[in-house]
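Reposting from the mailing list since nobody answered there.

I have sequence plus structure tokens for a pair of proteins and want to know whether others read the tokens the same way I do. The first protein:
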Amino acid sequence: MPENETQETQENLVLERSEGQNEASAADELAAIKAQLEDEQKAKAAIEESLTGKDARIAELETALSEAKQGSEATAVELASTREAKDAAVAKYLVMAKALNPQLPEGIITGESIEEIDASVEKAKATVEAVKQSLQAEAAATKVPAGAPTRGAISLEGMSPREKIAYAISRQRRE
């Protein structure tokens, strides 16, 4: 029996050692798992904090975008109003340019802006002036004296002797 006891004692020692090792390795595993859990909880907290910051930034940007859209819409309305006012002013300017230049033909003054209307008026004035000068030059070249031309002496060369005598008699009576 002593052998049996020795064997049992040895088995007990082996069991105790393995239990001790199991307890030690279980404790080590538990500590490792706890450390991993803490790391993951810290990472989760950091991610949640980052998400909260990003959510706040998104809200800020959405507010800024909304304000920018409202500003853009207001600017578009103001631009449309300004364009309408400009178009009305240009139309009035066109009417005034035509009224101030009655010597220019009606349809020759055109334009969609004040600059175009001014250029049109200048071009029309230059055209009218060129036509006037052309007509004056043409009139000067074909000038006809006013009234009947002065009478000169009648040429007797082509007259018969009888016509010459009649002419001389009528001339004496006038004198």
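The second protein, same order (residues first, tokens after):
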Amino acid sequence: MRPPPRTRVPQWLHHQLERGLAVKPDERHPSMRALLAALVFSFKLMHGLA
């Protein structure tokens, strides 16, 4: 799925949310805790905090 043009959702966030909404269970995060950890890590990485 591609984000619509001029979206205000950052690409790193869109990627993690897209993975969380994957149709196939093996393509999703294994748990909400894993999703949250991926979001925090991605945020820190994109903002030079990791």
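Reply #1 (J.P.):
I read it the same way you do. The mean pLDDT is 89.
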